[in-house]
C-alpha cells in the first residue's frame, strides 16, 4: 500500500465540476500545457455552469486535468489516444472511448514511471516486467502496450482503500506569488477502478494511461473523511474582516496554506508532488499530515470559514491517519538504498523477497539479509541469485564499524548517495549524533533530508519501530535535545540565505525554535538556550560578535564577510603604484553629449572627470549614481584610454544583456557574464547555479583592470567568489559599478549596497571616501529638460528627492504630464487587457485596427532583413510586470501581446512548443539559461546569457532558430520540448518580469502595477521605472495614491536584510527592520523612519523638545499639492512648515527648491514667519545650533 499525490489546476470554484466563476481571470491553471493549449475565451460564456450540462467539447480544458475532482455527480468523459490520428501507428485502430467518471473521483497518470528514462531502474526492481520499447518517432514515453500494462497495473495495485490521496497545485495559485507546490486538500481512497482499455476495431488494444479512483472528501466537513483547505473562502473575504482578527489577509493565508515551506522546503516532498500522479512515502505523508494539523488549527483559531465542529472532525481524521501511517512505516526505510550504496544491485527486489520470506514490516531486515547471503533463506529463480556469492564477500569485507553505520543510516529515509558519503566519512560520529546527517545535507543543499527526517529514526516510537526502537546514545529522547536543536538552527541559517540574510539574531532564532517546539509538542524552549549551550552549538556556526554575542552566522558566511571586509577596505584605501596620468577632464569633455554652454552639462562633466581620476588612481573604486546620471558615459570614456587598454581590461556583468552593453563600449575588450567567468576558472556549480570554490579552482591573471557592472545584483557568495578568483597581486584596479537602490540580489546579502554606504558614511576616512563617486547630475535630460520618469523614480530611490519633486504626484493626478511619463488606470483583471491595448495604441499613435502592424514596426519584426542586421530594435518597447502567474502577470500579458502582434493567427503548424508556451516564427523571446552554443552559419560558439532578448527567425524540423540582440546574422537552434516540467531555454518576451529586466534598458517601457502582491517593494518599483531610456507608461491599479506608500523607508526590502559586512545590521525580531546608516533611518519617534540622516537629527531634537509634528503630511492649496518635510499646527489652526535642504550645490536641486519656494510664497508662506529652512553644509552635515534655533522659533508660535 502506498499513498499518492494528484496534480490539479487552480480552480476558483472549489473544483466542484463547474466552470470557473471567472475563467478569464483564472490564469493560474495555464501552467499546465493541456490547459494553455485548450483554454478558450468561450469558457467565460459558461462561467459557473455544471459540466454535466455541457457537451464534451463545451467543457473547460481543466476537465481533463482533474479540475473537477470534487464533482458531486457523475459525468461522462471521452478519451482519444494521442497517437490515434496517424494511420501508420497501430493506435489508429483505437476508438474514442467514453468513461463515466463517478462522483468525487479523480484520474492520475504516473508520468514518472512511464518515461523511458525511468525504465532501467524499474526493470531492476521489477525484472518480471516485459521489455520497454521506444516510439518509432520522437517521444519520451514507453510505446509498447505490454510494458504499459505492466507499469500501470503495478502502480494501480499499490493504491488501496488504506491509501491517502493528496491533491496539489504544482505551479500558479493566487495564495503565493511564487508558490511552486501547494496542497489544496487530502482524503482517503475509497475505490480504485484499475487499468482500463481503449475500445478498438482490432484484436489488440492499449491501456488508458489514466487510473481512476474515488476519494472520501465531501463538502460537509462533519461527513467527510478529508478536507479541502478554505483558500477560496479566505480570498473572498474583505480585508477588514481579517483586521478584526488582528492580522492581514496575507498573514491569515500564510497560516493555513500547505506549501513546501511548511515541510522545511523538503526536496523529497517537492519531488513527490511533481509528476502528475506519484507515490508519497510514509515518512513524507507523516510530515504532510502533521503540517495539515497545524493548518487546520489555524483555521479553527481564525473562525472565518466553515463550522468549528466540522474542522474539529477533520483534526480527528488527521490524528487517526497519523496513527495509521506510523503503523505502515518500517524501522529501516532505507535498507534497499543502503544495499545500493554498498554496491549491491536489486536492493528493492531483495527487500520485497525478504518480506515474502518472513521478514515482517517491523522486523530488522539486516539479519534476514545475512541469512539470504548464507543460503538460510532461498528465493527460487531470483534474478540476483548468481550474484549472492559476490554480495556475501562484499558484506563480510566491511568492518564492524561500517556495518553498524550502514544499519544506522538505514533507519532514516535517505538516498544511496547520502548513505555512501557517511560510509566513507568515518570521522562523522553519526552513531552518537545522527543529526550530523541533516546538518551535512543542509550544507550541501540536499533538500530531501531534514531534521524531521532524522526525527523519525532517532525518537523511540514503538508504533513506528516495533521492537527495534533506538537506544542511547544514538536515540533522541526529547524534542529539546541539543543535537536536534543545532540541526534545526543550521537548517534555518541556510534557509534564510534565500531571503537575503547572512546572519540571524539570537532572539529571532530562539523565537523560531520556540514556535517549532510549541507546534510540535507544546514544549517550552528554555531561555537563552543558544548562549547556555554555546560550546556545543558553535561547532556548527559562529557567534557574532564573539564577546556578548547577539547573533549567529554560518561559519562560511562569517569567513566570506570577514574576507570581503578586509580586502575591499584595504584596496579602497590604497592607490595604484603608477596612475596613467591621463587628462581625464579632456577625455570627459570630448564626449559627444558635452555642452560647454550648459551649466548642468559642465557640472556633470566635472563629476565624470572626478570619477575617471578616481578609477585611474584607486586599487578599488566604486562608481554609482541613479538612472540617467552617466555611469555608462564614464566607463566608455575610461575605455578610451590607450594606456588603460594596454594594461588589459576584463568587463564582467551578472546578466547577459548587461554583458552585451559593456562589450559595446569598446572594441577588442573581453566581456563575460559573472557565471561564465567563474566557470572558466572552475569556480561555478552549474547544477545548483551557484559559485563554488574548490582546490582545483584557478586564479585569473590576464587583464590588470577588472570592471564589474550591475554590482547590486551580486550576492555575498558571488562577490566573494569573484574576489577570490582574482590574482590580487597582479590586478591593478577593480572598478565596481551599479545603483545601490535597485533590487537586491536574489540570494544572500547586499554586498554592493553595504560597500557604498561604508565608503560614503560620515565616519569614513578621506582615503575611503575618495574611493567612491556618486554621480548626481542627470545627464539624460540635459537637452530635453526635466524628466517626469526620473522625478518619480527619485521617490523610490534611497535618497531624499529634490525639493519640488513632490509635484510629480499632483501632475499625475491632474493628468498634467507632458514629458516622458504616461499613467493609465485599471480596476481589475477584467478591464486590464483593454486598458493595456488602448494605452499601446495611444503611445504608438495608431488605431485599434492598425495595432498589429504598428507593434511589429515598433519592435522591428515587420522588416526581418533589417532586424537580422540589427536586432536591437527588439528593445524599442518592453512590457514589465512584477510576477508571472496572475492575470496581470507576464504569462498572460505575453498571451495578449502575441495575439495582438498576430504571429499566431492562421498559422496552425508554424510553431513549436517549449515548456507551456506555443512559440511562433517572428515571436520575441528571452534567453533563460547561461550556455555556450554553436551558431549558424558561422559555426562559432557564442556565450548566450540569461536575459538576452531575441526573435524567432525560423522554425524547422522541430527546432526554433533564434537571433539575439548583439549577435546579428547568427541564429541558435533550440529543440521544442513541451511540458511544465521542462527546463525551457527560451520563453516569450513581449512581457518579462521586473526582476528579469534588471541589467537591461529599453526605449519605451510599459509597467503593469497591481496594488496588491507580496513581491511589491520600493526597490522593485524603482527598478521598473529606471529601465526606460526614453519613456515609461505606467498602468496602475485603481489610483496613484497607494503607490506613494511604497516610497517610504518601511517599503524597502533591501533594508530588511541582515548582514555584517561592514556594519552590524541585524533585526532583533522578524518583524523589525535593521537600522543601517544610509539604508534606513530610524528616529526617536516610535515607528517613524525618515529619508536622510539630517532628518533624523531634526526629528530627535523635536522629540526631545516635546514638539508635536507631522512628517511628509500632504498640503493642498489652490488646486495644487506638495509634501513638506515637517508640518506643525498652531492652536488657532494655521500650519507652519519646515523644509530641510540637502544638496543646494547641485543645480537641479537648487532650481527645484526655488520652484517650491515660489509655490509656498504664492499660497501665503513667508520665510522666517511660517516657513523655516535648514540646510546641509559642504561636509554634508547639519548644524545642531541651526536646528535648535528653528525649534525655538516654532515653539514660540505653538
TrEMBL record:
Enzyme Commission number(s): 3.1.11.5
**InterPro entries in the record:** Coronavir_polyprotein_1ab (IPR050534), P-loop_NTPase (IPR027417), UvrD-like_helicase_C (IPR027785)
Q: Name one Pfam family in it.
A: AAA_30
| Entry GO MF terms | ATP binding; DNA helicase activity; exodeoxyribonuclease V activity
Q: Could you tell me the superkingdom of the organism this chain comes from?
A: Bacteria
Q: Which UniProt keywords apply?
A: ATP-binding, Exonuclease, Hydrolase, Nuclease, Nucleotide-binding
Q: Where is the UvrD-like helicase C-terminal domain?
A: 988-1035
| Keyword Cell division among record annotations | no
Among Gene3D superfamilies, the record links this protein to: 2.30.30.940, P-loop containing nucleotide triphosphate hydrolases
| Name of the molecule in the record | Exonuclease V subunit alpha
- What is the species of this protein? Phocaeicola vulgatus
Query: Which lineage?
Result: Bacteria, Pseudomonadati, Bacteroidota, Bacteroidia, Bacteroidales
Amino acid at each position: 500500500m502506498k499513498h499518492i499525490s494528484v496534480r490539479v489546476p487552480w480552480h476558483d470554484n472549489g473544483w466542484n465540476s463547474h466552470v470557473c466563476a471567472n475563467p478569464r481571470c483564472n490564469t493560474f491553471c495555464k501552467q499546465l500545457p493541456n490547459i494553455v493549449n485548450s483554454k478558450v475565451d468561450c469558457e467565460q460564456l459558461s462561467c459557473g455552469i455544471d459540466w454535466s450540462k455541457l457537451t464534451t467539447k463545451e467543457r473547460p480544458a481543466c476537465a481533463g486535468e482533474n479540475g473537477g475532482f470534487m464533482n458531486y455527480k457523475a459525468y461522462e468523459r471521452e478519451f482519444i489516444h494521442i497517437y490515434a490520428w496517424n494511420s501508420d501507428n497501430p493506435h489508429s485502430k483505437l476508438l474514442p472511448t467514453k468513461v463515466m467518471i463517478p462522483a468525487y473521483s479523480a484520474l492520475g497518470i504516473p508520468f514518472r514511471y512511464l518515461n523511458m528514462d525511468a525504465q532501467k531502474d524499474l526493470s531492476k526492481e521489477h525484472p518480471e516486467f516485459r521489455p520497454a520499447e521506444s516510439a518509432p518517432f520522437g517521444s519520451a514515453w514507453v510505446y509498447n502496450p505490454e510494458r504499459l500494462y505492466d507499469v500501470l497495473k503495478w502502480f494501480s495495485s499499490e493504491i488501496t482503500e488504506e491509501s491517502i490521496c493528496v491533491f496539489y497545485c504544482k505551479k500558479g495559485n493566487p495564495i503565493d506569488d511564487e508558490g511552486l507546490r501547494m496542497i489544496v486538500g487530502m482524503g482517503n481512497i475509497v475505490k480504485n477502478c484499475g487499468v482500463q482499455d481503449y475500445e478498438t476495431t482490432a484484436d489488440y488494444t492499449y491501456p488508458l494511461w489514466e487510473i481512476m479512483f474515488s476519494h472520501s472528501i465531501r463538502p460537509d466537513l462533519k461527513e467527510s473523511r478529508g478536507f479541502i483547505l478554505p483558500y477560496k473562502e479566505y480570498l473572498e473575504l474583505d480585508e477588514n474582516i481579517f483586521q478584526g482578527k488582528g492580522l492581514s489577509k496575507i498573514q491569515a493565508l500564510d497560516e493555513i496554506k500547505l506549501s513546501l515551506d511548511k515541510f522545511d522546503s523538503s526536496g523529497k516532498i517537492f519531488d513527490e508532488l511533481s509528476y502528475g500522479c506519484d507515490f508519497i512515502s510514509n515518512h513524507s505523508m507523516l510530515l504532510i499530515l502533521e503540517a495539515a494539523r497545524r493548518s487546520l488549527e489555524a483555521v479553527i483559531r481564525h473562525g472565518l470559514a466553515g463550522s468549528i465542529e466540522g474542522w474539529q472532525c477533520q483534526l480527528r481524521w488527521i490524528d487517526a491517519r497519523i496513527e495509521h501511517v506510523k503503523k505502515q512505516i518500517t524501522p529501516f526505510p532505507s535498507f534497499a538504498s543502503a544495499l545500493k550504496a554498498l554496491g549491491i544491485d536489486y536492493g528493492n527486489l531483495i527487500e520485497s523477497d525478504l518480506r515474502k520470506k518472513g521478514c515482517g514490516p517491523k522486523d530488522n531486515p539486516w539479519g534476514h539479509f545475512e541469512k539470504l547471503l548464507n543460503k538460510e533463506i532461498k528465493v527460487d529463480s531470483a534474478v540476483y541469485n548468481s550474484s549472492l556469492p559476490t554480495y556475501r564477500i562484499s558484506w563480510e569485507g566491511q568492518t564492524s564499524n561500517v556495518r553498524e553505520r550502514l544499519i544506522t543510516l538505514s533507519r532514516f529515509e535517505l538516498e544511496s548517495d547520502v548513505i555512501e558519503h557517511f560510509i566513507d566519512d568515518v570521522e562523522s560520529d553519526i552513531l552518537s549524533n545522527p543529526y550530523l546527517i541533516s546538518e551535512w545535507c543542509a550544507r550541501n543543499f540536499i533538500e530531501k533530508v531534514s531534521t524531521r527526517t532524522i526525527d523519525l529514526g532517532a525518537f523511540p516510537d514503538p508504533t513506528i519501530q516495533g521492537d527495534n526502537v533506538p537506544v542511547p546514545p544514538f536515540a533522541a529522547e526529547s524534542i529539546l535535545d541539543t543535537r536536534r536543536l543545532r540541526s534545526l538552527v543550521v537548517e534555518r541559517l541556510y534557509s534564510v540565505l534565500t531571503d537575503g540574510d547572512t546572519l540571524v539574531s539570537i532572539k529571532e532564532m530562539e523565537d523560531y525554535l520556540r514556535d517549532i517546539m510549541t507546534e510540535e509538542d507544546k514544549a517550552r524552549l528554555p531561555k537563552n538556550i543558544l548562549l547556555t549551550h554555546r560550546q556545543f552549538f558553535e561547532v556548527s556556526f559562529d557567534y557574532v560578535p564573539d564577546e556578548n554575542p547577539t547573533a549567529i552566522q554560518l561559519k562560511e558566511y562569517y569567513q566570506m564577510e570577514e574576507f570581503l571586509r578586509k580586502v575591499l577596505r584595504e584596496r579602497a584605501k590604497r592607490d595604484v603604484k603608477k596612475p596613467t596620468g591621463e587628462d581625464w577632464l579632456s577625455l570627459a569633455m570630448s564626449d559627444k553629449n558635452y555642452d560647454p554652454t550648459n551649466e548642468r552639462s559642465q557640472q556633470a562633466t566635472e563629476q565624470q572627470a572626478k570619477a575617471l581620476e578616481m578609477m585611474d588612481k584607486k586599487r578599488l573604486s566604486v562608481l554609482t549614481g541613479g538612472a540617467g546620471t552617466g555611469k555608462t558615459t564614464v566607463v566608455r570614456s575610461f575605455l578610451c584610454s590607450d594606456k588603460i587598454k594596454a594594461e588589459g581590461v576584463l568587463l564582467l556583468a551578472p546578466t547577459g544583456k548587461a554583458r552585451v552593453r559593456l562589450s559595446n563600449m569598446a572594441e577588442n575588450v573581453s566581456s563575460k557574464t559573472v557565471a561564465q567567468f567563474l566557470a572558466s576558472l572552475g569556480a561555478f556549480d552549474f547544477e545548483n547555479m551557484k559559485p563554488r570554490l574548490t582546490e582545483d579552482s584557478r586564479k585569473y591573471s590576464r587583464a590588470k583592470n577588472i570592471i564589474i557592472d550591475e554590482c547590486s545584483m551580486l550576492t555575498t557568495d558571488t562577490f566573494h567568489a569573484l574576489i577570490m578568483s582574482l590574482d590580487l597581486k597582479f590586478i591593478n584596479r577593480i572598478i565596481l559599478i551599479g545603483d545601490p537602490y535597485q533590487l537586491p540580489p536574489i540570494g544572500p546579502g547586499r554586498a554592493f549596497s553595504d560597500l557604498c554606504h561604508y565608503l560614503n558614511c560620515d565616519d569614513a576616512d578621506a582615503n575611503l571616501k575618495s574611493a567612491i563617486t556618486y554621480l548626481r547630475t542627470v545627464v539624460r535630460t540635459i537637452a530635453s529638460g526635466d524628466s517626469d520618469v526620473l522625478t518619480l523614480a527619485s521617490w523610490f530611490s534611497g535618497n531624499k528627492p529634490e525639493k519640488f519633486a513632490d509635484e510629480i504626484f499632483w501632475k499625475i493626478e491632474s493628468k498634467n504630464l507632458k514629458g516622458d511619463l504616461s499613467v493609465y488606470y485599471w480596476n481589475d483583471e477584467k478591464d486590464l487587457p483593454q486598458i493595456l491595448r488602448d494605452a499601446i495604441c495611444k503611445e504608438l499613435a495608431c488605431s485599434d485596427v492598425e495595432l498589429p502592424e504598428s507593434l511589429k514596426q515598433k519592435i522591428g519584426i515587420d522588416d526581418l532583413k533589417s532586424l537580422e542586421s540589427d536586432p536591437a530594435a527588439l528593445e524599442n518597447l518592453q512590457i514589465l510586470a512584477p510576477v508571472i502567474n496572475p492575470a496581470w502577470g507576464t504569462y498572460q500579458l505575453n498571451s495578449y501581446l502575441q495575439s495582438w502582434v498576430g504571429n499566431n493567427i492562421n498559422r496552425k503548424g508554424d510553431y513549436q512548443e517549449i515548456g507551456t508556451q506555443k512559440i511562433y516564427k517572428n515571436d520575441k523571446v528571452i534567453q533563460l539559461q547561461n550556455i555556450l552554443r554553436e551558431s549558424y552559419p558561422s559555426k562559432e560558439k557564442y556565450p548566450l546569457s540569461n536575459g538576452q532578448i531575441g526573435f524567432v527567425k525560423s522554425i524547422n524540423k522541430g527546432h526554433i532558430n533564434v537571433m539575439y540582440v548583439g549577435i546579428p546574422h547568427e541564429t541558435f537552434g533550440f529543440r521544442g520540448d513541451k511540458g511544465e516540467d521542462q527546463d525551457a531555454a527560451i520563453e516569450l518576451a513581449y512581457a518579462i518580469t521586473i526582476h528579469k529586466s534588471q541589467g537591461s534598458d529599453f526605449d519605451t517601457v510599459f509597467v503593469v502595477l497591481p496594488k496588491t502582491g507580496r513581491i511589491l517593494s520600493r526597490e522593485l518599483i524603482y527598478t521598473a521605472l529606471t529601465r526606460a531610456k526614453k519613456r515609461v507608461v505606467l498602468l496602475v491599479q485603481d489610483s496613484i495614491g497607494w503607490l506613494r506608500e511604497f516610497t517610504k523607508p518601511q517599503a524597502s526590502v533591501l533594508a530588511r536584510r541582515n548582514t555584517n559586512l561592514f556594519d552590524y545590521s541585524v533585526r532583533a525580531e522578524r518583524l523589525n527592520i535593521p537600522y543601517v546608516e544610509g539604508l534606513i533611518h530610524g528616529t526617536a519617534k516610535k515607528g517613524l523612519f525618515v529619508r536622510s540622516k539630517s532628518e533624523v537629527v531634526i526629528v530627535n531634537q523635536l522629540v526631545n523638545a516635546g514638539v508635536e509634528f507631522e512628517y511628509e503630511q500632504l498640503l493642498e492649496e489652490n488646486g495644487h499639492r506638495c509634501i513638506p518635510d515637517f508640518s506643525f499646527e498652531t492652536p488657532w489652526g494655521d500650519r507652519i512648515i519646515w523644509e530641510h535642504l540637502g544638496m543646494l550645490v547641485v543645480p537641479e536641486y537648487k532650481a527645484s527648491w526655488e520652484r517650491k519656494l515660489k509655490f509656498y510664497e504664492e499660497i501665503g508662506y513667508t520665510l522666517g514667519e511660517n516657513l523655516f529652512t535648514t540646510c546641509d553644509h559642504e561636509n554634508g552635515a547639519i548644524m545642531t545650533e541651526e536646528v535648535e534655533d528653528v525649534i525655538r522659533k516654532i515653539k514660540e508660535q505653538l
